[in-house]
What we know:
It contains twelve helices and eleven strands. It is an alpha+beta fold. It has a five-stranded antiparallel sheet with strand order 1-2-3-5-4. Strands 6-9 form a two-stranded antiparallel sheet. A hairpin with a 5-residue loop joins β7 (146-148) and β8 (154-156). The termini are far apart. ATP binds at residue 46.
Amino acid sequence: MGAQPIDFDGDVNLFHFVLLRCVGKGAFGKVRVVQHKQTRDLYALKYINKAKCVKMKAVPNVIQERRLLEEIDHPFIVNLRYAFQDDENCFFVLDLMLGGDLRFHLERLGSMPEDTVRFYMAQLSSALSFLHDLGIMHRDLKPDNILLDERGNAHLTDFNIAVHFGERKLNGVAGSMAYMAPEILARRGYTYHIDWWSLGVCAYELIFGRRPFRGRSNADLTKSITMDPIRWPEDTEKRCSKAGVQVLRGGRVAGVWCERIPPEPALAPRVWLHRSPTTIMPDVRPCATPRLTPRLASGFLERDSAKRLGCRPNGEGFQDIKRHEWFKPIDWETLETKEQVPPFTPDGYYNRKKG
C-alpha cells in the first residue's frame, strides 16, 4: 500500500512539512528548518516540549505567546505562520531567519558601525510602534532577541514574556536585567515606555561594544541603571555622531563626557523576579556633565519615561523618532517595504556557527 495522501485542506500537522536541518535550541526544545510540502516555502519549526513547560511552570507563558503572535504580522517581526501540537510537543511554525542574532554578530565583530545600528534601530522602532498600537509590550528586547534574515534585515523575536497593556501600569519584573528600564527596577510601575529604553541600551551596546550601565551584582546594576550617569567611551566622537549621542542621552550635546571604562563583567542573567529596594540613595556624583544648548530633545535613555523618546501617546512618539536628526538618512517608506539594501549582509552564518 502506498502512503496516505496528505489532506492540505484539513488541520495543519507535522506531516505537512519536510523536516530539514536543526539550526538551534530553545528553552523547551530544538528549532529546525522545514519546508511546506505544498507551497515549498521554508520556515523555522520551534519545538516546545510539553513536559518541560510543565516542569518549568511556563505553560501560561507559552499559551500567552501563541495568542499574542496570532495578532501580529509585521515585516520586522518573526511572525507565526502555523501552530499545532501532538502528544509530546507544541509546534510553532515561524518566519525563517538565516542571518543569526545580533548577539552572535556583536561577539564576533566587537561593535558595529553607526550607520548599521541606525538601520536596525529604524526597523525595530517600526516593529515596536506596531506592537504598541496593538497594546502589546515586548519586555525582553536585547541583541539575543533580534534576528537577521539572509539579506540583513532585523526582526524582533521571543514573545515569551510579552503582555498586553492598558491604562493601568504593571508592576511585575520580568526580562533581562541589564536591559530593564529604571521604572521597573525602582518599582514605580511601568507601561510600554520600557521597550524604548531597552532599544536605547541595544543601540549603545551595538555601537560601543558594551552596555551603558553595568554592575558586578544585581544591586550594583540596579544602582547604575536607576541613578548613575551614562558612561561614554573615550573614542565616542570617532564611533558616534552628535546626533547619535543625542538619540540616546537626549539634549543638543556639544561635547561628550568621556572616561576610561574598565572591562565589562559577564552578562547579567535573565531574571524572572528581582527584588530590589524601592528607595536607592547612593552618593553618586558624575565627573562632568555634557554641555547642552538651550534647545533640548529627549533620548531613548531618558529616565523620566514621560519624556523618553518614542513615548508620546497616539503614535506621536514614533513620529518623533522619524523626525529625529539621527534618523534623517532613513527613507521610512522603502525601509518598511524592505526595498532598502541592508548595510550588513550575514553571509555564511550557519557555516561559521558549525565551524
